[in-house]
Amino acid sequence: MSRRESPPPPSPPPTPQLLGVRRGEVDCEDRPERAEPLSDTEREIIQDTWGHVYKNCEDVGVSVLIRFFVNFPSAKQYFSQFQDMEDPEEMERSSQLRHHARRVMNAINTVVENLHDPEKVSSVLALVGKAHAIKHKVEPMYFKILSGVMLEVLSEDFPEFFTAEVQMVWTKLMGAVYWHVTGAYTEVGWLQVSSSAV
Question: Could you tell me if 103 and 138 are in contact, meaning their C-beta atoms sit under 8 angstroms apart?
Fold first, then answer.
């Protein structure tokens, strides 16, 4: 970095589950053979808490995306419509951001509504993963980051429903979502790229 360039704004410290994933990499070595299945009780907890969230799905989705883009601005590179927006209020007014927030929340809703049908969940998440890998070329690590941001926002916005126990169950679900999405990346031949490659 030259003296004239100002240093980038400080990034928030990575959460423990984000450590070790580099750009262009699907972390296959640590990827379990399958996602940990949810118990009937866990599925019920997720569906009950999601009912409260989904009543305000667009606003919650917008809050999630704004926090995601503010805390991880590199993620905006995949969104030409709002990649130059810096102001959270401008993001909140963006119809394109609202549209994508609805899409994200509707995808999660489809997963939650179909937790009793693992093949449907797998199919939906495979479509999401393949579209983001092939069409949008989104680094898979952003799904893990977005999952963490979503859990953070849900816990803050719905503290009466997102107790410590509920957060653990949702963390398990988000781990399964990430597992399925990265499986789709691997299936379409997403190459592992390492900055240390010779």
Answer: no
- What is the C-alpha to C-alpha distance for residues 46 and 49, in angstroms, rounded to an integer? 5
Give residue-wise pLDDT tens across range 108-120. Answer: 999 999 999 999 9
Q: Are 91 and 66 in contact (CB under 8 A)?
A: yes
- Per-residue CA distances from 189 to 123, 127, 173 (Å): 18, 15, 25
Q: How many CA atoms lie within 13 A of 72 on its CB side?
A: 20
Q: Please, which residues have CB within 8 angstroms of residue 63's CB and are 6 or more apart in sequence?
A: 153, 157
Query: Which DSSP helix (H) or strand (E) runs through 48?
Result: helix 40-54
For residue range 151-170, what is the model confidence (pLDDT) as tens digits? 999 999 999 999 999 999 99
3-state SS class at 196: coil
**H-type helices in 55-136, by residue range?**
57-71, 88-93, 95-113, 118-130
CB 132 within 8 A of CB 93: no
* Beta carbons of 156 and 198 less than 8 angstroms apart: no
pTM: 0.80
Return the closest-CA partner of residue 71 out of 79, 63, 60.
63
Question: What separation, in Å, do the N-terminal and C-terminal C-alpha atoms of the chain show?
Answer: 23
Between CA 129 and CA 191 the distance in angstroms is 14
Residues 6+ apart with CB under 8 A from 104: 61, 64, 65, 146
Reported as half-sphere exposure (CB side, CA atoms, 13 A), residue 114 has a value of 16
